[in-house]
Amino acid sequence: MRDLTRNGRAALGADAFAAAYDQGWQLDRATAATEVDPARMPGDQQVH
Question: What is the pTM of this model?
């Protein structure tokens, strides 16, 4: 989780990361589970 957070901030910038993080907390459980599905990640970033 620490690496994911650090990488997300580095990729998006602090403000955009904070906005995305806040938006994520607004999702209902079913939608959130769909949004974090590793199958949705680009090819080289998929979790195996």
Answer: 0.61
